[in-house]
Design a protein that fits this description.
Elements: E1 17-18, E2 21-25, E3 48-51, E4 57-66, H1 71-90, E5 99-103, E6 109-114, H2 122-139, E7 142-150, E8 153-160
Antiparallel strand pairs: 1-2, 3-4, 4-7, 5-6, 6-8, 7-8
Helix pairs in contact: 1-2
Length: about 160
């Protein structure tokens, strides 16, 4: 009889959880009522994992320079409204040419693009922008970069500011 040692891996992947709802696994359906507290505590890392309400979409957002006033908020609102109307008119299609660009007349821009050999759809982009705005409503509006996940898959990246 040969004995085989039992080993366990210490490198097993950790389940990622939403910073805005720590009881919710990232990429699973998130309902806004799953929030545990209005006094959210963020991780110590620079990036924040924030889940979009009512979807499996989440973002990994890296905030940068704060922007005073309502310029970023207005930019996100206008782009999200445009996406909602687009989805209502033609359905949840893939982002045209793999890039969404929403410039403004004040020098700010919102841009998102396909990533990780996946295609970004307008519906997922809209949910991601909701998550960006939701995070910024809690922590202040700023320039930021973000990765967009649809369930377990990274489907896009973006920048606002």
């Amino acid at each position: 009889m040969v004995a085989i040692p039992v080993t366990t891996s210490s490198t097993a992947p950790r389940t990622q959880r939403c910073d805005n709802a720590p009881n919710t696994v990232a990429g699973t359906m998130f309902q806004h009522r799953a929030l545990v507290s209005a006094d959210l505590k963020l991780r110590t890392s620079q990036s924040v994992l924030w889940c979009a309400s009512g979807s499996r979409t989440y973002i990994l957002l890296t905030p940068a320079v704060a922007i005073a006033g309502h310029a970023i908020e207005s930019l996100l609102d206008a782009a999200t409204d445009h996406i909602i109307h687009l989805v209502e008119a033609v359905g949840d299609t893939t982002v045209t040419d793999g890039v969404f660009n929403w410039p403004t007349n004040n020098g700010l821009v919102l841009k998102a693009w396909n990533a990780n050999n996946h295609q970004l759809t307008y519906g997922v982009l809209g949910a991601a922008l909701d998550a960006v705005a939701d995070y910024m409503n809690f922590h202040g509006f700023c320039r930021a970069t973000f990765a967009v996940f649809d369930g377990a898959n990274q489907v896009g990246e973006g920048v606002v500011g």
